[in-house]
């Protein structure tokens, strides 16, 4: 594992840059985007208990009983696209 791939788990921006370099080496031109924001996992139960339902995008069903299956919850504060 090189330094760039090791940083992908800690930094969305570094991961996007590493992916862009890899794509460039292989002649692939695709947009790369990241969503950066706050990790809500430590407070997710508290937030749901306070009445925020987080409805499912397709069914509208609240997260409720599925809370234990959630593995990521983020509040986006920035969206960055590297190519048009």
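Q: What amino acid sequence fits the structure above?
A:
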């Amino acid at each position: 594992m090189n330094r760039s791939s090791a940083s992908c788990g800690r930094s969305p921006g570094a991961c996007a840059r590493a992916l862009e370099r890899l794509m460039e080496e292989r002649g692939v031109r695709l947009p790369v985007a990241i969503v950066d924001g706050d990790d809500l996992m430590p407070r997710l139960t508290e937030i749901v208990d306070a009445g925020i339902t987080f409805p499912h995008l397709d069914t509208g069903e609240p997260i409720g009983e599925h809370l234990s299956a959630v593995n990521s919850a983020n509040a986006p504060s920035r969206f960055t696209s590297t190519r048009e």
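Q: And what stands out in the fold?
A: The chain has three helices and two strands.
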